[in-house]
Amino acid sequence: MTDIRIYNVDALGKPLGQYSHLTRVKAGEFLFIAGMLAPGDDFDAQCAGVFAQIEKALKSAGAGWGNVVQFTTYLVHSQNIAKYPHLRPGEYPKMFASGIYPPNTLLIIDRLVGEQYLLEVQTVAAL
Q1: Separation between Cα atoms, residue 2 and residue 29, nearest integer Å
Q2: Inter-residue long-range contacts of 58-64, CB under 8 Å, 24+ positions, other chains counted
Q3: What are the tens digits of pLDDT across the range 86-122?
Q4: How many CB atoms lie within 10 A of CB 108?
Q5: Rounded to 5 degrees, what are φ and ψ at 45?
Q6: pTM for the whole thing?
Q7: 3-state helix, strand, coil in the chain (%, to 5)
Q8: 119: helix, coil or strand?
Q9: Where are the alpha helices (DSSP H) in 10-97?
């Protein structure tokens, strides 16, 4: 059985953003989901599509949101930084019923594989 503990290390002080410092995982297998992209006319539509794709990938491996131990998120436009954290109070409670969210590294990049894509999310899960 997978033992996942997500927490903040007191010695590091309070996080500067809405995230956890550390995930400790005792598991026999890991799932690495390549950066997911999704079509859509705007950031919100693409964001919803990306997380739907991640959920499908998790389910295909017999896993769920509770198995996620790390996200790496790539945003194309810095103005979307303000939009992305709104996912946490709106959607994360549905995805992570425990209220403990996996660490997320957020990167702003020039562009993704296609001009139309605004975000990409890579996911690591422990099985």
Answers
A1: 9
A2: 58/31, 58/33, 58/123, 58/125, 61/31, 61/125, 61/127, 62/127, 63/31, 63/125, 63/127
A3: 776 778 888 988 888 888 888 999 999 999 999 999 9
A4: 12
A5: -65, -45
A6: 0.83
A7: 30, 30, 40
A8: strand
A9: 43-60, 87-90, 92-95
